[in-house]
Amino acid sequence: MDAIDRAIVNTLQGGFPLSERPYAEAAREIGIDEAELLRRLERLLADRVLSRFGPMYHAERLGGALTLAALRVPEGEFERVAEIVNGFPEVAHNYAREHEFNMWFVLATETPERRAEAIQAIERATGLRVYDFPKQEEYYVGLRFEA
Amino acid sequence: MELNQRDLRLIAAIQHGLPLSPRPYAEVGERIGLSEQEVIARIRALQARGVIKRFGVVVRHHECGYGANAMVVWDVPNGDVDEVGRRFARFPFVTLCYRRPRRPPEWPYNLYTMIHGRDRAHVLAQLAGLIEKTGAQAIAHRVLFSKRRFKQRGAQYVPPETARAPAPLKQAAG
User: What does this protein do (chain A) (predicted)?
Assistant: First the structure.
């Protein structure tokens, strides 16, 4: 990543223009031209610096449900269980963490009912209890991630 | 305000990303049978209603040089948790701050903060600063560093088939 890539990441974290030529408009702000911005965004996506360029939805306002869940996976079974959990399309991301609760994943489902079903399905498939930690309150953090 | 079918088609059409072309809204509109202006107006409305939280780059922290992330969980007395959560959320390195239910006896923690840093030492130094500045020494906490990331994609919110425009008439096979 060079200085222009960093400027792109830092400038385009929110507030992408809603106009006919949004990339041209955003590029002007960064000090490059439209074609270069498009080229660089393509590369940042291909290099997987960005996972996406587009909207981040509020799952609950879409009628869906989002929850954080954890498993206590016995030593030696981690790979097997990870494969099962990652196979569920509702699992948005999954991290191994250093704790007895060692697998943490986010479940995003189209409805609250589907969330409960997905949890039960994961319990059946893995033979482990899923600890479900739905969000009760979100404390506002400004988006200040600096690349 | 209820989301109608057109909103849902639009939401599905852009859930994995906006087209990287000079007129992205026109292109999306063409796919789902809306005009460019209508796409723009609907995205604006979805933002105003908070259905779209933000619109732009979705960064993979690791690839941006933030190699370490810790989920720090806290056991805060119920009456204090909102105030403590709001205080923690003000630190720039705290990227998420949520209250979640305890699962006693194995899991007594009710406040979650995500802290990103260049490496583990950096994360721990930021955490020490947060505890010091907020006087949180008495709140029990655990630091769960991530070891591996298996999967990180944007969540799929609506089934992809929603994104299809009404089916065109089938061409006769030649």
Answer: Involved in heme d1 biosynthesis. Catalyzes the decarboxylation of siroheme into didecarboxysiroheme.
